[in-house]
Amino acid sequence: MRTALPLSIGAHAVLLAGLVLWAVPHKPLTVPTIPKPLRVELSMAPPRPPAPPMVAPRPPAPPPKAVAAKPLPQPKPLPQPKARIEPQAVKPLPSVPATVRELPPSPPAADPVVSPAPAEAPAAAPAAVQGTGGAGGTGGEAGVVRVSAAMLANKGNAAYVGTLFAWLEKYRQYPRRARLTNTEGTVMLRFRIDRDGNLLAWNIVRSSGSPLLDKAVEDMITAANPLPKIPVEFGGSADARSWEFVLPIDFRLLT
C-alpha cells in the first residue's frame, strides 16, 4: 500500500506536466547545418639546394697610383721646300790684280805631251806640261824661261812640276752646279812665277767650254799664290828671273 501511493502520485505528476507542455505553444526545433568538412591536401615540398660554401671576402683593391700626365710631343716642323736653283747669267770675270798681269798670247805648242789624268784622282807626277818656246828657251823675252816637255826628261824638273800639280790640287774646287749638271772639261792654264813662287801673271789659253769650270780655275790660281819655290837645280838660263808653265787642269766626275 505504501509503495502504490508514491507511484500514483508520480504518474499524476507526469501526466500534469504533459498537459502543461501541450498547452504551451512552442517553436519548431531547427536542426543546425553541419558544415562540409575542409579538404586539405598535403604535398611534399622539393628539397632545398645546398647552401653555397662560405667564401672569405676579398680585401679591397688598393687605389690606383696617380700618374703624372706626360706632355704631348711637339709636332715636327714640316721640311721647307728646297729652293730651285735657277740658272744665272755668267758674271764677267774679275779683272786681274795689279800685282799679276795678263800674259800675252803664247806661240803655238812645240810638241804636246800625253793627255792629263783625271783631276779627281791626281797622280804624284804631272799629267801633262804644254811646251812653249822650245827646250827651255826664253821665247823672245829676256829672263823668262818657258818650261817645255823636253825639260821634263830631267827627273828633278819633273818632280818639281809634280809638286806644282799637287799644290794647285789643294785649291781646286769642283763647282757644285757643274757636278749637278755632270759638266766636265779641261782648262789649259798658263802662269808665270818668280824664283820664290810668287805669281806674276796668268791667263787661260784654252777654255773648257764651261764658264763654271773656267771660273773655278781662276779662283784656284789666285788662291794658290804663292806657289812652291823654284829649285836651284831647275832648268833654265843663268839669267832666268821667271818661269812660265802651261798646265792642263782637268775636271772629271768619278763613275
Descriptive notes:
The chain is an alpha+beta fold. The chain is 22% helix and 12% strand. It contains 4 helices and 4 strands. It has helices spanning 4-23, 155-171, 176-180, 211-223; strands spanning 144-146, 185-194, 199-206, 242-251. It has a 4-stranded mixed beta sheet, covered by helices on one side. The chain is rod-shaped and about 220 Å long. Mean pLDDT is 73; it is low at 89-100 and 107-138.
What's the layout of helices and strands?
Elements: H1 4-23, E1 144-146, H2 155-171, H3 176-180, E2 185-194, E3 199-206, H4 211-223, E4 242-251
Parallel strand pairs: 1-4
Antiparallel strand pairs: 2-3, 2-4
Short synopsis of the structure:
This protein has helices at 4-23, 155-171, 176-180, 211-223, and strands at 144-146, 185-194, 199-206, 242-251. With 255 residues, it is α+β, with helices and mostly antiparallel strands.
Mean pLDDT comes to 73
Look at the helices and sheets and give the structural class: alpha+beta
Biggest sheet details: 4 strands, mixed
> Low-confidence parts lasting 5 or more residues at pLDDT below 50?
89-100, 107-138
Tally of alpha and pi helices: 4
The end-to-end span amounts to 182 Å
List descriptors.
about 260 residues; alpha+beta; four-stranded mixed beta sheet; 4 helices; 4 strands; about 10% strand
